[in-house]
Amino acid sequence: MTPDQMRDASLLELFKLEAEAQTQVLNSGLMVLERDPRHASSLEACMRAAHSLKGAARIVGLDAGVKVAHVMEDCLVEAQEGRLLLSPEHIDALLQGADILLGLGTPLQPGAVDPGIDALVARLGALARGLPAPSAAPVQASTPVAEPAAAIAPSESSVKAPVVEPPVALPPAKPEPSEPAGEGRARILRVSAERLDHLLDISSKSLVEFQRIKPLGDSLQRLKRLQATARRALDMAREALPKGAVDAQAEAMLQETRQALGECQQLLVQHMTDLDDFGWQGGQRAQSLYDAALASRMRPFADVLAGQERMLRDLSRSLGKQVRLVVEGESSQVDRDVLERLEAPLTHLLRNALDHGIETPERRLAQGKPAEGQILIRARHHAGMLLLELRDDGGGVDLEKLRQAVISRGFATEQTGQQLTEDELLAFLFLPGFSMRDQVTEVSGRGVGLDAVQHMVRQLRGGVRMQQRHGKGSTFHLEVPLTLSVVRSLVVEVGGEAYALPLAHIERMTRLQAEDIVQLEGRQHFWSEGQHVGLIAASQILQRPEGKPSDNGIPVVLIRDRDSLFGLVVERFIGERTLVVMPLDARLGKVQDVSAGALLDDGTPVLILDVEDMLHSVAKLLGSGRLERVDRNARQLSGSKRKRVLVVDDSLTVRELERKLLLSRGYDVAVAVDGMDGWNALRAEHFDLLITDIDMPRMDGIELVTLVRRDSRLQSLPVMVVSYKDREEDRRRGLDAGADYYLAKASFHDEALLDAVVDLVGEPHE
């Protein structure tokens, strides 16, 4: 909140701000006190928070808040002085009191009073004196938890209250050393997100502007060399003149010119030294300003966990379970926007771990486990990404129960379901609407499950995967960018312009030779680590002109998105860069295949590509049959054009045999799996010869040849039919349809096929 907003804010708004801060202190402190009721620093912090809220409520005129905070303070003072040992029932009442105080900042109606306040005050008063507490009405938590499924508020009526023992005189808790006020704790100011974004934008532009000093210094260096050359040329011209050819006046002018050039050079050297010093210092300050502006957007990962421990505690009591949340790496710095969008998926995963994973205390003890379950969250940085691991020590996933759920819900047949592997079964948990619960409860069974988590993580340009060990728990691995304001990217050149690909989607980079590319089912592929990877020209997706072919191979970026892997052909690798994301003007709407813009170090604008959008563009190109070849330019480097042959056959054995024979002879070969696939390939690319079978699914060879002869562009294309049918009428059908050559598979040998190809189109090279 800005100073002007602070001046204009009402007292109630100010109370709400203080209530948000103090109830957070109460929630975290009470969680510690539930495990260790004598923890002195937590008792002190909670007592001071309640005391502060009492004073704030009195100033604002919230009498109900004064009563609640006062009785909470009394209870905590009794515990501080050793006259009261806090039990789970005390913690329940104190937490409900914190919820009420937070809710008083936004009453439903002016002057409205929660009817449960008097009951809570009476209950806390009795508990503070060690007397049996009257039964409590459930109090709705006023801090909603943002998550995909409906949040629940645990009610006291669903939890059996423990027997309250008579008060026992306890020794006073030893005060723990605490940090002096104002020391060891950073002062926090409220600054609007818009101002932070503006500051980051200015600092990034300043950094880019200072990068332009280097080319200016290089220009001055060239000017210095030119001046030195001019001075030497003047001296050489003077020496070349014969003696007596220059009078005294001309000699004086030459001397004056030499002196002026020398002074200019000395002045230039001084200015260059000053410019270098200014450029270095200014660049360092601009970098520091940018780093500070970027750091101002970062928050510790612990901020996203505020309230999660409380949520787990309340939910575990309502489910009759015991659980403890352990966090590692809570100080890891993450962009505030990422943290805000991580809260919902993390909440859902925590609730899922408690509801589906952690067993009841009785069952855990019977299995030899501690009665209290544990959920671990581990956060760490790696390669510009935030890696999160959420692990529970519960029962894991019952794979057989999951298998039956998949079959019973019609996701797989009985036979297919029995053959599913563990990874394949776990993948069903991420499907929309899939749930293993038959009944809807407040926590589960609504069909809003891990698919919501996966969707939200993917919106952050991240990913999520699951592992489990039956009887020993489950683990979720999340990977998201540290910041959405800065993206580590590979900058490439396409159509003479720079584009950036986020590193999070890049599997690796490579260079291909023309002979590494094969045509398979109407698409170009290459072999990479045991699988065929489809090739796509970035110039076609981005509708840019083709650049000059590279003389040291075809640059390819392997892009992975979810389960898809494809090779994106570019013109040149520029290098890895960390780019400040600059959102596109909202008036442009969604620009196809582009997510944002940025500036390179030299001020060159660059567009950051949207990988998911590019996948949709690729699917459209495939559906239309207009996907172009990516190695056309590379073939031109060989100096002679190779003849291209399309082999169409539904038999993999025959198809590969013919392809290898033609490749060994020097022809460029593409393959298609049936007549329809072959027809799409013929319309999309140029071929010098068509070799086709007759009997094929979707479209047979006779239909294919007929279509070729009816097409004005293809009617002169030589066609060879290779078929097992060797009867005269079959041969006549093929030739009548328009084939130029008919060869029977039963009788042909290697040389027969190659000789026929040479007869039809000549040698492989023109």
Automatic annotation (TrEMBL):
Catalytic activity, EC: 2.7.13.3
This protein's UniProt keywords: Kinase, Phosphoprotein, Transferase, Two-component regulatory system
GO MF assignments: phosphorelay sensor kinase activity
Domain Histidine kinase residue range list: 284-484
Broadest EC class assigned to this enzyme: transferase
InterPro entries: Bact_Chemotaxis_CheA, CheW-like_dom_sf, CheW-lke_dom, CheY-like_superfamily, HATPase_C_sf, HATPase_dom, His_kinase_dom, HPT_dom_sf
Origin: domain of life: Bacteria
Modified residues (Phosphohistidine): H51
Pfam families reported for this sequence: CheW (PF01584), HATPase_c (PF02518), Hpt (PF01627), Response_reg (PF00072)
The reaction(s) this protein catalyses: ATP + protein L-histidine = ADP + protein N-phospho-L-histidine
Domain Response regulatory stretches: 644-760
Record's keyword annotation contains Phosphoprotein: yes
Domain CheW-like positions: 486-620
A Gene Ontology BP annotation from the UniProt entry: chemotaxis
Residues bearing PTM 4-aspartylphosphate: D693
Residue ranges of every copy of the HPt domain listed in the record: 4-108
Job description of the protein: Involved in the transmission of sensory signals from the chemoreceptors to the flagellar motors. CheA is autophosphorylated; it can transfer its phosphate group to either CheB or CheY.
Entry protein name: Chemotaxis protein CheA
The organism of origin for this protein: Pseudomonas straminea
